[in-house]
Design brief:
There is one protein chain. The protein is an alpha/beta fold. It is built from 4 helices and 3 strands, in the order ααβαββα.
């Protein structure tokens, strides 16, 4: 990624892969693309094992990633949702925060750290 960004900074508008000529992009999943099954499997296992899941700034509308919140809650994790608008998982959450993320997150993380200490 660093090399690709250097190429853009040097003036290449859309640098192709030097090996195959294809499009270079970060390891993000764009709308309509499938998640890597191995990565999704790892995320599901983590959701099943976690003690707390904090979903921040997401509508929790896009599946299958959104279902990780429900998975965590079903397996006993404390689910905290920080989002300006309601989500389909609010009813499963232990806490729903509707404050701006910049305000809510530092306070929430400080409280979680105190509880865990």
């Amino acid at each position: 990624m660093e090399e690709a960004l250097e190429r853009v900074a040097a003036g290449e508008e859309d640098p192709p892969c030097r090996v195959c000529g294809g499009i270079l992009k970060s390891a993000t999943v764009m709308f309509g693309e499938r998640l890597d099954p191995e990565v999704l499997g790892q995320a599901t296992a983590i959701a099943q094992a976690c003690q707390i899941m904090v979903a921040v700034g997401t509508s929790l509308q896009v599946q299958p990633a959104a279902s990780l919140a429900g998975t965590a809650a079903r397996y006993g994790a404390r689910l905290v949702i920080v989002n300006a608008e309601p989500t389909p998982y609010d009813e499963h959450a232990d806490e729903v925060v509707r404050e701006p993320i910049g305000t809510a997150l530092p306070e929430l993380l400080a409280r979680v750290a105190e509880e865990g200490a």
